[in-house]
Amino acid sequence: MPIPQPCSSYTVQSGDNLTNIGKWFGYTVQELxxxxxxxxxxxxxxxxxxxxxxxxxxxxKHYEIKSGDTLSEIAEKNHLKAARPGKKSWEDLAHFNHIPxxxxxxxxxxxxxxxxxxxxx
Length: 121
Known about the structure:
Membrane-bound Lytic Murein Transglycosylase D, Chain A, alpha+beta, two-stranded antiparallel sheet, two-stranded antiparallel ribbon, single chain, 4 strands
C-alpha cells in the first residue's frame, strides 16, 4: 500500500501542470505559484512539492477507504469533477493520490479529497 502523503501538499508527477493541480484541489494557478514561490508557473518539475494553504470555501480532507469502496463511488459521493482533460473524476482521484492502479485499493488506505465548504452568513 502506498504511504499516504499529507493533504497539505502534493508531489508533482509526470504530465502534471499547475492548472490541473489547482483545478483539482481548488486553487488558481496564480495562488499556487505565489504561495510556492514558483516564478514561472509553466515550469514545474516531477517530484516538486506543491504546498496548499487555508482558503475560504475549500479544504482537503483525509478519507479512509472502507471495504467495498471504489474510487468511482468515492468520487461520486463527494461530487468530484475531473481536472485533467479527457479523464474521469475517479481517474483523477487515483492520479492525485498517487494510486498506480485505480482498481486496486485497500481498506484502511487513506486518500485526500478536495471538498468545497459552503459559506454561512
